[in-house]
């Protein structure tokens, strides 16, 4: 039975962790090609890079990365290292059917690597601490709890909510770094060529995925090579120092060369050349205030407070009940931040992993002559160094806590087995109590990250998914007098500011907005009553054009009605770049037709249609200020109620669009 405890405990933990992760990854839908946003922006970057590799170049087509592109000597480069793009190359050689749709599959594979290496590392650490002692029931149960907390109750589950490059790269980085740490311990204990090859392979993949993680593990591996050379790791290991040097030095040199080819620097990229810097005044101010960079020790206090504050979480009386803090992250010590979002803390969202990591400190500091115990120190050091980049970075977001996961996993593993050794000596009621508390903390981490992930997925996608999310809030926690009903406010126009999670009704349910709590896009549209213009042909139709409405979004566009003398009409969309014409359709004297405008918030556009005639085109519905902060646009109809246009023989009337039913229910409960 004892021989079965290891696989059973591992499987139990992975089932819980995997269930949470894949629920977040698929967002409770069976769609393996899901992207973070409807238009697929940032979910196709690695596909674009892979295509460039197939064409024999590193740069990508101009404009293909939007604001994320770096323009150097007239060429556009992606700042992400290439490993996730290289994974796509074999698929793209076979088929192009999945271009731009491989991110979710890549993130699923990344979790499998992460979960496998986390499990292997956990049991490897036990062998270092407890050698080959039989696994007890307590240890098996504790291991299952730990694996569930690491693979499903950490920020990786939150990362799964958005299948785009910003989260994909972290999932790969975490799994590959943990794999490198595992093989580092193995190689220290058994410095064979096979182990060194595995170590070098994982280190290379790490260095080509995320610079901070790659440099951290490679430098530690080189440091271990120096330790071997001194003979302090044992005379039998001294001759093996070259294996470690090659395993750490080769990946590091490869990453340096790749970055230097693009940006002429061993690890940094020129932020002044990024498209985002050109369009965002605040980014330019941040670079100016920080000496041309947004990295440095001036950000350490800010990162320390935001990433480790015990109250870095928020509990509310409505679904999802657990969420990110209401306010965006704040700067401390006079730091001038580039960007800052609502940011959950490690202590609040991953409490079990944090506490176990703290418990590891005495074990790691204790003097020992056993190389098995000594091997844990560079392993933990590598994990800690990974977080150095984000600690000194002037950009604060919850996804960046992914950089701490390797340290939490390896140090937490040490703390787990050390704690088990102590608790084993207690009486059974006390042992059960401690195990129960650990399981509760693990499940809390699972719930907190899973619930926050679902809210993030809906808010980012918008459209029907955001409406479904708000409707779910209504079903689970709505009703008159409820905490959810108190989030509903109403006014004639949308205010500039509001409270986090506020649902704001404009007019008589003309539109319903959600306040995100973030500084850069405080309001997102949940649903909106369509604009409908009824056109009646009052006499003989005459040739002419009449302005119907103007949309104020990223660009100003107007819709016009054009008529002819031979009973035809169509809708035109005009902008500064030209005119787009919808299809002609026939109309007759005394007949009536309609023109409708409905907003697709998942696209950021308003769709114009005519009946008859059908689809006409789109009008931008998102406004951007000088810093590219987004705000819902507006649509101004050119007349108030009814207006006659005798020169064309028509009368225009604003008709009542179908009212948003969700908004009406929410407003009724709030009154």
From TrEMBL:
Protein name, per record: Glycosyltransferase RgtA/B/C/D-like domain-containing protein
Chain segments annotated as transmembrane: 6-26, 102-123, 143-162, 169-185, 197-229, 241-261, 346-365, 377-398, 404-423, 435-457
Question: Per the record's keyword annotation, is Membrane included, yes or no?
Answer: yes
Q: What is the lineage of its organism?
A: Bacteria, Bacillati, Actinomycetota, Actinomycetes, Micrococcales
**Organism superkingdom:** Bacteria
**Organism expressing this protein natively:** Intrasporangium oryzae NRRL B-24470
- Keyword set for this entry? Membrane, Transmembrane, Transmembrane helix
Q: Please indicate if the UniProt record lists GTP-binding as a keyword.
A: no
């Amino acid at each position: 039975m004892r021989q079965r405890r290891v696989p059973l405990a591992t499987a139990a933990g992975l089932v819980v962790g995997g269930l949470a992760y894949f629920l977040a990854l698929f967002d409770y839908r069976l769609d393996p090609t899901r992207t973070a946003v409807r238009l697929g922006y940032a979910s196709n970057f690695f596909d674009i890079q892979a295509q460039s590799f197939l064409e024999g170049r590193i740069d990508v087509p101009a404009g293909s990365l939007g604001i994320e592109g770096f323009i150097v000597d007239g060429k556009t480069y992606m700042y992400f290292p290439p490993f996730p793009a290289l994974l796509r190359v074999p698929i793209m050689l076979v088929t192009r059917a999945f271009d731009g749709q491989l991110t979710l599959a890549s993130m699923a594979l990344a979790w499998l690597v992460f979960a496998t290496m986390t499990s292997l590392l956990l049991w490897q650490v036990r062998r270092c601490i407890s050698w080959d002692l039989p696994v007890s029931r307590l240890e098996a149960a504790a291991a299952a709890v730990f694996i569930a907390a690491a693979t499903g109750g950490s920020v990786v589950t939150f990362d799964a909510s958005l299948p785009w490059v910003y989260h994909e790269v972290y999932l790969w980085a975490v799994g590959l770094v943990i794999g490198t740490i595992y093989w580092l311990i193995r190689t220290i204990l058994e410095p064979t060529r096979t182990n060194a090859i595995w170590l070098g392979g994982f280190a290379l993949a790490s260095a080509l995925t995320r610079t901070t993680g790659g440099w951290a593990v490679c430098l530690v591996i080189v440091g271990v090579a120096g330790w071997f050379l001194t003979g302090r790791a044992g005379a039998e290991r001294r001759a093996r120092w070259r294996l470690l040097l090659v395993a750490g030095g080769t990946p590091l040199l490869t990453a340096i060369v790749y970055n230097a080819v693009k940006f002429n620097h061993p690890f940094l990229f020129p932020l002044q050349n990024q498209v985002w810097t050109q369009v965002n005044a605040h980014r330019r101010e941040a670079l100016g205030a920080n000496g041309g960079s947004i990295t440095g020790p001036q950000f350490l206090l800010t990162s320390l407070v935001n990433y480790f504050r015990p109250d870095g979480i928020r509990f509310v009386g409505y679904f999802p009940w657990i969420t990110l803090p209401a306010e965006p992250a704040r700067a401390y010590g006079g730091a001038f931040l580039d960007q800052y979002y609502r940011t959950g803390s490690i202590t609040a969202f991953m409490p079990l992993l944090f506490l176990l990591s703290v418990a590891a400190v005495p074990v790691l500091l204790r003097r020992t002559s056993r190389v098995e115990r000594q091997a844990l120190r560079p392993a933990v050091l590598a994990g800690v160094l990974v977080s150095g980049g984000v600690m000194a970075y002037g950009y604060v977001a919850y996804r960046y806590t992914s950089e701490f996961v390797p340290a939490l996993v390896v140090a937490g593993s040490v703390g787990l087995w050390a704690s088990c050794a102590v608790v084993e000596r207690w009486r059974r009621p006390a042992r059960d109590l401690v195990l129960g508390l650990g399981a509760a903390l693990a499940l809390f981490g699972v719930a907190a990250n899973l619930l926050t992930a679902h809210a993030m997925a809906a808010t980012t996608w918008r459209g029907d998914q955001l409406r479904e999310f708000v409707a779910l809030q209504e079903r689970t926690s709505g009703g008159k007098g409820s905490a959810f009903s108190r989030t509903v406010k109403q006014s004639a126009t949308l205010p500039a500011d509001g409270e986090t999670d506020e649902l704001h009704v404009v007019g008589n349910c003309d539109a319903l907005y959600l306040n995100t709590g973030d500084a850069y896009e405080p309001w997102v549209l949940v649903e909106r009553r369509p604009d409908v213009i009824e056109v009646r042909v009052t006499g003989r139709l005459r040739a002419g054009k009449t302005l119907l409405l103007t949309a104020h979004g990223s660009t100003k566009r107007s819709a016009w009605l054009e008529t002819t003398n031979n009973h035809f009409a169509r809708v035109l969309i005009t902008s500064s770049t030209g005119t787009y014409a919808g299809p002609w359709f026939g109309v007759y004297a005394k007949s009536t037709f309609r023109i409708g405008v409905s907003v697709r918030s998942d696209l950021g556009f308003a769709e114009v249609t005519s009946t008859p005639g059908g689809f006409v085109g789109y009008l931008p519905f998102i406004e951007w200020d000088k810093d590219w902060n987004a705000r819902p646009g507006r649509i101004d109809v050119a007349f108030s109620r009814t207006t006659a246009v005798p020169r064309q023989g028509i009368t225009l009337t604003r008709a009542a669009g179908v009212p948003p039913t969700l908004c009406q229910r929410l407003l009724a409960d709030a009154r």
